[in-house]
Amino acid sequence: MSAEFSPTPSCGEPVGQASEEPPSLTEAQRASADAAQEALRLERRCRRERAARREAERLLEEKSSALYEANQRLATLNADLETVVAERTEALRDALAEAEAAKARSEREAMHDPLTGLPNRRYLRAAFEKMTGAARAEGKAMAALHLDLDRFKLINDTIGHAAGDHVLLHVGRVLSESAAGRAFVSRVGGDEFVLLMLFDGDLAEVTAFAESIVRDLSLPIPYGASQLRVCGSFGVAHARGDAINAGALLANADRALYLAKGRGRGVVAHYSGALEQAIRDRKALGDEIDDAIRSRAFEPFYQLRVDARTHEVRSVEALARWRHPDRGVLGPGAFIEIAEDHRVIHRIDDIILERALGDLAAWRAFGLDIPRISVNVSADRLSQSNLLERLKALALPASSVSFELLETIFLEQAAEADFQRLQALRDLGVALELDDFGSGHSSILSLTQVRPRTIKIDRRLVQGLGSVESSGVMVRAIVEIAAALQVRVVAEGVETGEQAALCAALGCDELQGFAICRPLPASALAARARDIQREPAAALGLEGAA
Ligand code: C2E
Ligand code: CA
Ligand code: CA
Prior knowledge:
17 strands; binds ligand C2E; 546 residues; 53% helix; single chain; binds calcium ion; five-stranded mixed beta sheet; alpha/beta; 17 helices
């Protein structure tokens, strides 16, 4: 703005000399006229300049108000923009949090078992890595404990999946509580769990830990108005330092578990080299059993049952034998457990029943009077869905067949469906017998549940007769209860004439045991049965010495 004003003198400044002088005027007049003119000129110039300044000021004012407005607009815009940015940031933050939560959720789902909420196999792998680092840093040993539930399949199949889930949730809780602060717990499959723990090197600590869990798991599980029972077996493997390897440790724990299951229920087995061999043997035997089923190398041997007083033949029990190509004739001790493990025991039961029916028909065709045969029936066989169809197809001879059931099948968790099935068997003319009676814990209950035609007193009770005082008391009590319920009583495992006499005196209806007859092949049994039929008095004492 200063550039618009030249450095010319402004109004009121001293004025210089005029250059022209009119000839008619005096010097002074001329000077005064000049001055007046100059003043006029200056005044005009001043006015112009003032006007220019005003214009400039006006312009300036105009521009600054425009600038102000522009500034205001800019400020408003800025404020709007900030609001938008804040809103967008907020939305973005929400979306990010949501995405993170979803990621965490899906990560959690990917790492946990949906039913029990326990870590799953993937999580187990990750935990293994972490614990391996800790074990090496702290100089500790690491153990993998593989748990498998016994009887779980039975619950799932007979009582239903809701009961199965109930059991799994319960087991998950028991494990979490027992392991709190001590071990990592995961569920790796249907009824299988793997625990990892670090320990100082004393295996007894790990064993005690596993055994305490086995004990807790064996307690009854309340389920509605009833109770469920399971039991668990552990396979344990351990390693320390550089030898800790996830693949090997978990596989070894699994192998140890396989052996634990073979030894019975509620077993804790540790992995070792000897165990490795035992497992190989067991696996090979399992394969051999499969082959033997295909080639029907299983056959029944028979043991006679006679009337306790008259010694007349009442029945025969079919006992499975395996005619092994190298090892000769093998008893159930050599294969039942493994066949159960491989879930093929029902096929052996089926072969034995079919062959026993054939033998019975043959004996009868030769005029030999064998009133009944009984076969042993596994839980597996009893729960086969096609059992009844199969029995109908076999066209059982009327009133001639009994099924011997182990009372332990029914002890804890028989469901309504099981009792209906038993009724269907009775309707088919099959008599039910409770085997090894007196060896379980709730025999009286199973009597009312199963309503058998006959009970077979466990041979440990019979063999105590004459030497163990309580045996006599027990046998007498069983006979009395059976009489009240109109159930027949067979004494099993009668080895001596004295035991036979005591059983008869105590009121048993029938006798079975080495004293009367050893288990014999079909051909030999016929001769023994004929001998006894000819001369019942000779039934005793012949075999007892063998
Ligand atoms: P179990 O049903 O209690 O059969 C009686 C067992 O006692 C038989 O053993 C028999 O040989 C033995 N025994 C008979 N009398 C005497 C005696 O006086 N003294 C002694 N110490 N023992 C005697 P085995 O044949 O070895 O059978 C063992 C078990 O295997 C049977 O016990 C039964 O539970 C099971 N079993 C046998 N055959 C079959 C079958 O076809 N299917 C199924 N699922 N199990 C079977
Ligand atoms: Ca039996
Ligand atoms: Ca028995």
